[in-house]
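Input.
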Amino acid sequence: MAITFNEKTKVFSMHTKNSTWQMQVSKYGHLLHLYYGRKISEGELSYLVRGINRGFSGTPYEAGEDRAYSLDTYPQEYSAFGVGDYREACLCVEHEDGSRAAELLFDSCEICQGKYMLSGLPAVWADKGEAETLKILLKDKASGVEVTLLYGVFEEYDVITRACRIRNGGETEVWLERALSACLDIQRDDLEMITFYGRHTMERLIERGKCRHGKIVADSLRGSSSHQQNPFVILCETGAGEEWGECYGMSLVYSGSFLAVAEVDQLNQTRFVMGIHPQGFRWKLKAGEEFTAPEVIFSFGGSGYGDLSRNLHRLYREHLTRGKYRDKRRPVLLNNWEATEFHFTEEQLLSLAADAKELGVELFVMDDGWFGGRNHDRCGLGDWRANPKKLPKGVKGLAEKIHQLGMEFGIWIEPEMINEDSDLFRTHPDWCLTAPGRTPNRERGQLVLDMSRPEARDYLFDSIGKILRKAKVDYVKWDMNRSLSDVWSGACSAMRQGEIGHRYVLGVYELMERFVSCFPDILWEGCSGGGGRFDAGMLYYMPQIWCSDNTDAIERISIQYGTSFGYPVSSIGAHVSVSPNLQTGRTMPLATRGIVAMAGAFGYELDVRKLNCRERELIREQIRWYKQYQELMLYGDYYRLTKTEENQDFAAWQFVSRNQKLSLASAVCLHARSNPLFGRIRLKGLKEDAWYQVRRERLTDEPGMESEEQEVTMCPGGGLMHAGVNLPVFEKDYESVRFVVEMMEC
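Output.
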């Protein structure tokens, strides 16, 4: 069994293939964390927890004169405020009398087959036999508040998930002022924290710093997981890298405001907590009511964060994403936005689609501007009906014509937003998030629809659903182009406004679940100005997310690199766009733009009608190549071969099939040098003693050059991994090369 409980010693043990998590019910009833790290097959580690009398670290009343026992110094499994633990708390409850304290004591436990699920919230799922669940019930005797800790153990994936349900088991109402999902107390202080920061069009850059006395915080107060910080972090031992060092990965399965804190305490112990951001949060629980905190995914890697990433990639692909496109090949698409923006007619769209079809594109996507009076970003949002001036026969008519071309058809929507210049706003101005007596903050000319209102969600489902039912739509891009502010709802009492931020997220999830359930054949793609809501919660509903509004291939290398630490390639929406790039003005070869975009769910976002003959030939070849190797690139093991934060000369990455018979490696020159040094990359993930044929292909936009630049060698896997393969001498910035590595038959 992956989960065991020793009735005599009161020790819980959870084992994955390579890790162990242990905790113990103490002699006074508190649940103490013992260990999380490399797998320990036998034995219990309760000896690790010890104490002495420390000034200003008090003891629970029940401990009497046992002054060595202190919640302030002992490692907790779920920390609570107000009872003597002065470190970062997971739970803070205000009782009817105004007091704020909860002493959580062990009551009971249950071990069962399968994986728990969370009502109204996304979570990793499993069929019976694929995971085990541990439920531990803790109670505050004075108030009756109960916390059920939920653990899901995925043994083969080296993953343990955590969530909790908080129930008011008393007779009077209570207020949750803080309800984080998980706590991890690690008895060491040599850890570094890796976070993924950024801004719009430059998401998930890497920042790394040593955990110190005090706190390191990664958070979002934007109502979404945000471009600025991502709800995925890594704690690792000092100096850890891709293939060395102990690493803890923590990912919050939630798409709203979040908090992640690492704190080193007075005894050099590190506490990590994660969950819904408490600022602006306040949740009322009447007697008998329950609150569910979102899930945190934990994975431990003993051999660097490369293995850690691949654990999460595989888990997300196989046990977080759902539906038809979880394993299915994704169509190569063309999005019309960069070709036309808001200004198009049906004839122009059909012209684009026909040219794209001739190049091998399989899916045509109509982006913003097709509905209401939408000719710019200050009007139309909320009016989900086709603009007859642009689409005379509606979405249905255009969809039929696209399908007649032999292509699939997709649309763009932004359900959560509303313009003041819209029929919906004129009819229901009260459906906006706006504070009474205040003019609201605007972003991109739009306000936020109150997704906590069932009537607003019903309107969206009915109006957008009518289009999806009437027209044959194969793909939908769900966008969200601003942060939340003025978070106040006229549908909720003054005392419960602290619930609106979370109720908004629950409303979004409820609406998404209705759509994906009713339209299971549609490929859904998430988006929030690119990567502003790139999180595990979204992947439960949508198998891919538009990674960034920045389509510059060189910038995308850094963005996709950072994203890959916590999220699989199959989730990364990536397109080839025009050169010079519209965001940066950079000029890049089409070959390089293609090879970078192929490290994701691949497509194009340019005016294909303006391409010359050579460019059209290259795109046909890119699409043929992608179709041939898509399964490997989306669902194989992914390896980062260089660090973009350190290597300024070139970037490289690699895909390896699960059976290790086929691999692709790609490299892009970031900065050509005079009198250059020779470059080399060490491949990864191959079989040491197997022989491989390696075909090196220098990619270029110049006609007739590819065959001249090919080079074929044979080498054992050990040589390719330990000695490496040579890069060509790059003569220009942004040149690229790829390696096709195939195992040779004996």
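Residues 35 and 511 are 40 Å apart (CA to CA).
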